[in-house]
Specification:
Elements: H1 12-22, E1 28-32, H2 42-47, H3 49-52, H4 66-72, H5 84-93, E2 96-102, H6 111-120, E3 126-132, E4 135-140, E5 155-156, E6 162-166, E7 185-186, E8 195-205, E9 207-213, E10 226-232, E11 239-245, H7 247-256, E12 262-266, E13 272-279, E14 288-289, E15 291-296
Parallel strand pairs: 1-2
Antiparallel strand pairs: 2-4, 3-4, 5-15, 6-8, 7-14, 8-13, 9-12, 9-15, 10-11, 10-13
Length: 297
Amino acid sequence: MPVLRFEPHLEVADQRAYTWLEAAPPGAVLELPIQGDEPANTLTFQYWTLEHGHPIVNGYSGYISPLFYILKDSSSPLYDLEQFGDLLRACRALGVHYVVVHESRFRQEGLGRATSVAIGRQTDQLQGVVPFGSTTVFWLVAPPDAVNASPPSLRAVSQSFFTATASHANADLDLAFDDNLETLWQSGRQQDGTEWIEMQFDRQRNLGLVQFDMGADVSVTDFPRRVRIESSDDGQEFRELYEGDVLTEFFRGLVEDADRTPIAIILPDNDTVTLRIRQTGQSSQWWSISELSVWEH
């Protein structure tokens, strides 16, 4: 069967980068830019794994992995230069040891250089920066030891024990508690940091876990960019239980259970009558939830 000849042309700088990777310790590689199933970059990056021998996040065989789908999307955290600290932590947690930035391959002028600068600022997450002309290999620090996802004694809190309200699309909030991944609660507007969901319980409960299930369709890109979870034992005074990004748990959910895509947030001990979940980030995407569940000790 006749096939088209593939010419994996590389600049000298790229060839030198792959020679360096060949001798580097084992670990997965993320190559940038990441642009989906087009052959100019993706197929070339796949081909050169034969040279350096490392697995890569990039890859296309007629199937695009959920993680690759998120990273190549126009709302990808790769396009939010202020979010690279969160992004690198999430990649490290999945076993990514190297990020290779090919500045000359970016379509948008200046974005390649800006990406290198943004990664270079994360000095606490880098154990080496190796430049090869317009290509740079960023060698990431190993991730901390994984924390157990959740204690085995946790049990789901039935919806009959709480009522919930939301800042946006309150009339549709029941869709987040209907045990159906095909239905969604959606904020209906771009994330601007003012979104919240509040849950009022029948009595004080020691909540150990909050989980957002994002589902598997296009709405998975509507994950909350940053989350703050607050607890009150009287409905008046609140204390913070969690504040930060969710990229690490989001990426882990994509890899381990792409049908459900769970984002699990472990909470410290608390006596909660009112739980307030705030979305505090910024994004052009809506905030969507297929299923929202809370678990208690």
